[in-house]
């Protein structure tokens, strides 16, 4: 506790710590070990355990699945300082997030800024309560890094748009209930114009998904197809043909979210994990000086990322954040996460190559390592992120 912390914030910290200790089950204070440990919510959701259900419902009822959202939309109504205290107290005890959600990380902030009141009332409380699981319809087969080249079209038909086209790399589309999607509503306009941001139900007639198998053996990504999907025009967020404004704002939050994978969060430090395989010397140090040096360097960079993330949150809450800072964070966080898994593979030696044995939990380590190769592509490639930093932050000539 800081000596300069205001008395009311000190009281909030004390009460928050006591509430978390009383309400977070011990099982929810342990590192995530499988996909089932993560609760995503949605229409067809199932809890992996009774502690997972209790933790989610207690946090939901408190408004702390989205602590800083307004209470009228299902949030906790916390101030920036209070939210920071809550995050710190959850980290102190190793508490898992009660709900993981693209609705929380990406769509929610966009709706709060650009949505009309009816849209906020309809969607935000359901996101906070984990009732609807969302996916993101941005990238297309010929519009990845150059997203504004998207060709999925939405043609006007009375009070509806009729949507035809396809998206790719749609994370968890096969599990999602609704999609927030970029569509071209004016094909005659310039590339960045004529795009609209629209919401619709994945159960709508004409929507199909197809998982994409990755080299890791997992299929978090999908192809998503739209064949004459009818969507009311009232589902457009913001102004028709001005969806690029919403898209850019949402991307800031997506990239900030992705950058978070660079932080360890809940789980054992790398040095402890490496010691399981490598062992320790007489002084209790990791018995591989080169690996020890790599881990020490990583730990310093991880701490720097965590400090930058806190600064980014503070600046965002104060309305002072640079719009391109999330690109720098995304680049650094994803590169750091790849380094983490390279170190884990090195520390594990030949045993880290096990793919299907029970000893390796069906190849958890190599599969996770392979999955990280997509980190520098998803949410904007490393090259695009560096270009944004060069142009908008460093103001380099010719950028």
TrEMBL record:
Positions of the Acyl-CoA dehydrogenase/oxidase C-terminal domain: 241-394
Needed co-factor(s): FAD
InterPro entries registered for this protein in UniProt: Acyl-CoA_Oxase/DH_mid-dom, Acyl-CoA_Oxase/DH_mid-dom_sf, AcylCo_DH-like_C, AcylCo_DH/oxidase_C, AcylCoA_DH/ox_N, AcylCoA_DH/ox_N_sf, AcylCoA_DH/oxidase_NM_dom_sf, Mycobact_Acyl-CoA_DH
Domain Acyl-CoA dehydrogenase/oxidase N-terminal: residue ranges: 9-130
Record-annotated Acyl-CoA oxidase/dehydrogenase middle domain positions: 135-229
Keywords: FAD, Flavoprotein, Oxidoreductase
UniProt similarity note: Belongs to the acyl-CoA dehydrogenase family.
Protein name: Acyl-CoA dehydrogenase family protein
Organism from which the protein derives: Bradyrhizobium barranii
């Amino acid at each position: 506790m800081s000596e300069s912390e205001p008395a009311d914030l000190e009281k909030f910290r004390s009460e928050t710590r006591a509430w978390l200790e009383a309400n977070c089950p011990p099982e929810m204070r342990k590192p995530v070990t499988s996909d089932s440990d993560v609760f995503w919510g949605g229409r067809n959701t199932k809890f992996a355990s009774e502690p997972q259900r209790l933790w989610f419902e207690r946090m939901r009822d408190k408004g702390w699945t989205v602590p800083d959202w307004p209470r009228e939309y299902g949030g906790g109504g916390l101030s920036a300082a209070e939210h920071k205290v809550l995050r710190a107290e959850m980290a102190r005890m190793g508490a898992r997030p009660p709900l993981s959600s693209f609705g929380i990380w990406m769509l929610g902030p966009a709706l709060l800024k650009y949505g009309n009141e009816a849209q906020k009332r309809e969607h935000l409380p359901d996101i906070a309560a984990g009732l609807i699981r969302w996916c993101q319809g941005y990238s297309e087969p010929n519009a990845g890094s150059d997203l504004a080249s998207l060709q999925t079209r939405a043609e006007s038909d009375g009070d509806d748009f009729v949507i035809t086209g396809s998206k790719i790399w749609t994370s968890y589309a096969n599990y999602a209930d609704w999609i927030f999607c970029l569509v071209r509503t004016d094909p005659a306009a310039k590339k960045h114009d004529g795009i609209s941001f629209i919401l619709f139900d994945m159960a709508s007639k004409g929507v199909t998904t197809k998982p994409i198998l990755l080299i890791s053996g997992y299929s978090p990504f999908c192809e998503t197809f739209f064949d004459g999907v009818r969507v009311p025009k009232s589902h457009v967020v913001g102004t028709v043909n001005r969806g690029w404004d919403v898209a850019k704002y949402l991307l800031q939050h997506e990239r900030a979210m992705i950058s978070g994978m660079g932080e360890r969060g809940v789980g054992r430090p790398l040095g402890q994990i490496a010691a399981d395989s490598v062992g320790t010397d007489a002084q209790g140090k990791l018995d591989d000086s080169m690996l020890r040096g790599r881990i020490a360097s990583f730990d310093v960079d991880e701490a720097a990322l965590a400090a930058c993330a806190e600064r980014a949150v503070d600046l965002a809450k104060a309305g002072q954040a640079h719009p391109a800072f999330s690109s720098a964070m995304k680049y650094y966080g994803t590169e750091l996460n790849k380094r983490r898994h390279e170190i884990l593979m090195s520390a594990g030696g030949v045993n880290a190559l096990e793919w299907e044995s029970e000893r390796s939990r069906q190849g958890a380590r190599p599969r996770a390592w392979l999955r990280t190769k997509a980190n520098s592509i998803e949410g904007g490639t490393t090259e695009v992120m560096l270009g944004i930093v060069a142009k908008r932050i460093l103001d380099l000539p010719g950028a």
